[in-house]
């Protein structure tokens, strides 16, 4: 087999972001997530629950599902990473988790439009989401082999930018041709898929799952053609060996102050960011009374911002290093959270607005650009900063720890949002715990060495 050039390997690696981003953009944040809470809310209303409480219960149901998936991902990730590093093969794992993503996304087609199978909806979504997150751990483990320390910041940022562009395109196509508005027509006045889908049973919106599955299958082809595993180590992989290697890594963390602090810091601020991603669309639907299609348009704007910002952030990462870029991103997102807590359909910061005012919509669209843009920048530069701290002999294990700290406590943001929403009965105040998570992560960054763990 002919040798694949480094340039092709990098482009093949980019295509994972392009292929997988719609699961996050379309299903998690802007179409299926809001669609789920709208069905769940209607289901609670049909049971006689008061309107605001029905909305709060729907958001809490979604948040606790993300809590459970976060726990599963977090505690499995480092073990899987250590197993991959032991044997030296990552692509077979990526194939297996890709099948989970495809099955989970495809299963969303069977969502009942009356909300009668909410549990099935959540289980199918969780299966695909877990597959996507597990695959990402192994993808991240390949980053150190794609360039020098100076180059990987730009590579990481470009990958996120490319991925968000894929998210924009997929969301755009779905809104134009598939997803129905309340009047049964798509954004440009078509019947869903030119009349082949039934708008009365929400087939246009339900088809987003199979669409994401097919998109992933098609656009992972360049990855599997151009990305190769290193030569296998010949060492047999086992859970026992992986656990032993993982335990050795965890025991060694106290001696690695910068790495340990960075893992703790990123655990908090990435958890807060995931909270924003998970509930941005539902916030628009529940607080600002957006339709699912309006949320999708908001998603296009946010994803375009993410694509542009991620590319620019990659260049900034190369020039200034990843740590200053992460810090700047966190401060911007703190401002966004503060804005959301004080934003409603008829008021901002307690000041009543005139009836029909577009100010909340304009402010929320601006917040969407910043969530998408600065979130993309923060993720890309956080990945670069992790590369500077990781063990180059076992990068997937290191990113397994990164996945553990990013997911083992990933239940915190959804859990706190669920609790705050349930206790207050207010969807806006449900977002307030994210402020504390961002601030704590920012404080801990003070003790992180921007160049990585110092060598003895």
Provide an overview of this structure.
This protein is mostly helical. The protein has one domain: MFS general substrate transporter like domains (Growth Hormone, Chain: A). 72% of the residues lie in helices and 1% in strands. The chain has 17 helices and 2 strands. The chain has helices at 6-30, 32-46, 51-87, 91-107, 118-140, 152-178, 203-206, 208-219, 221-226, 239-252, 257-287, 292-320, 322-341, 359-389, 395-407, 412-424, 433-444, and strands at residues 347-348, 351-352. Strands 1-2 form a two-stranded antiparallel ribbon. A hairpin with a 2-residue loop joins strand 1 and strand 2 (351-352). The longest helix is centred in the first third of the chain and has 37 residues, at 51-87. The two termini are 42 Å apart. The relative contact order is 0.17. The mean pLDDT is 85.
Number of strands: 2
Can you tell me the CATH class?
Mainly Alpha
The ordered H/E elements are HHHHHHHHHHHHHEEHHHH
CATH topology: Growth Hormone, Chain: A
Uncertain residue segments? none
Distance between the termini: 42 Å
Count every helix, treating DSSP H or I runs of 4 or more residues as helices.
17
Keyphrases for this structure?
Growth Hormone, Chain: A; globular; mainly alpha; 456 residues
Topology:
Layout: H1 6-30, H2 32-46, H3 51-87, H4 91-107, H5 118-140, H6 152-178, H7 203-206, H8 208-219, H9 221-226, H10 239-252, H11 257-287, H12 292-320, H13 322-341, E1 347-348, E2 351-352, H14 359-389, H15 395-407, H16 412-424, H17 433-444
Helix pairs in contact: 1-5, 1-6, 1-8, 1-11, 1-12, 2-3, 2-11, 3-5, 3-10, 3-11, 3-15, 3-16, 4-5, 4-8, 5-15, 6-12, 6-14, 11-12, 11-14, 11-15, 11-16, 11-17, 12-13, 12-14, 13-14, 13-17
């Amino acid at each position: 087999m002919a040798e694949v050039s480094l340039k092709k390997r990098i482009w093949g690696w980019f295509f994972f972001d392009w292929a997988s981003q719609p699961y996050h953009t379309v299903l998690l944040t802007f179409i299926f997530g809001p669609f789920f809470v709208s069905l769940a809310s209607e289901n609670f209303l049909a049971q006689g629950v008061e309107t605001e409480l029905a909305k709060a219960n729907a958001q809490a149901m979604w948040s606790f599902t993300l809590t459970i998936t976060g726990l599963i991902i977090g505690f499995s990730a480092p073990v899987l990473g250590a197993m991959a590093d032991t044997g030296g093969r990552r692509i077979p794992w990526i194939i297996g988790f890709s099948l989970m993503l495809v099955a989970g996304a495809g299963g969303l087609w069977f969502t009942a439009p009356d909300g009668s199978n909410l549990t099935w909806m959540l289980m199918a979504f969780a299966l695909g989401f877990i597959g996507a997150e597990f695959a990402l751990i192994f993808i991240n483990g390949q980053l150190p082999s794609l360039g020098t320390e100076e180059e990987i910041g730009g590579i990481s940022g470009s990958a996120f930018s490319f991925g968000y562009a894929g998210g924009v395109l997929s969301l755009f196509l779905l809104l134009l041709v598939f997803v129905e508005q309340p009047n049964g027509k798509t954004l440009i006045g078509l019947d869903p898929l030119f009349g082949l889908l039934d708008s009365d049973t929400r087939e246009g919106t339900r088809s987003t799952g199979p669409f994401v599955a097919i998109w992933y299958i098609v656009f992972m082809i360049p990855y599997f053609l151009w990305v190769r595993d290193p030569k296998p180590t010949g060492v047999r992989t086992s859970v026992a060996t992986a656990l032993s290697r993982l335990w050795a890594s965890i025991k060694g963390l106290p001696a690695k102050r910068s790495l340990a602090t960075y893992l703790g810091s990123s655990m908090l601020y990435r958890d807060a960011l995931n909270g924003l991603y998970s509930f941005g669309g539902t916030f628009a639907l529940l607080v600002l009374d957006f339709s699912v299609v309006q949320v999708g348009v908001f998603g296009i704007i946010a994803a375009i911002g993410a694509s542009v910002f991620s590319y620019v952030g990659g260049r900034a990462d190369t020039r200034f290093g990843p740590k200053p870029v992460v810090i700047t991103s966190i401060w911007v997102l703190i401002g966004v959270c503060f804005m959301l807590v004080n934003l409603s359909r008829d008021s901002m910061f307690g000041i009543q607005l005139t009836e029909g005012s577009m100010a909340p919509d304009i402010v929320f669209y601006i917040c969407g650009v910043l969530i998408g843009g600065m979130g993309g920048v923060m993720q890309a530069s956080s990945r670069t900063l992790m590369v500077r701290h990781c063990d180059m002999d076992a990068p997937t294990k290191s990113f397994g720890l990164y996945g553990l700290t990013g997911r083992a406590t990933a239940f915190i943001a959804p859990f706190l949002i669920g609790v705050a929403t349930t206790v207050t009965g207010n969807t806006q105040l449900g977002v307030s715990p994210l402020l504390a998570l961002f601030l704590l992560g920012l404080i801990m960054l003070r003790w992180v060495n921007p160049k990585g763990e110092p060598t003895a």
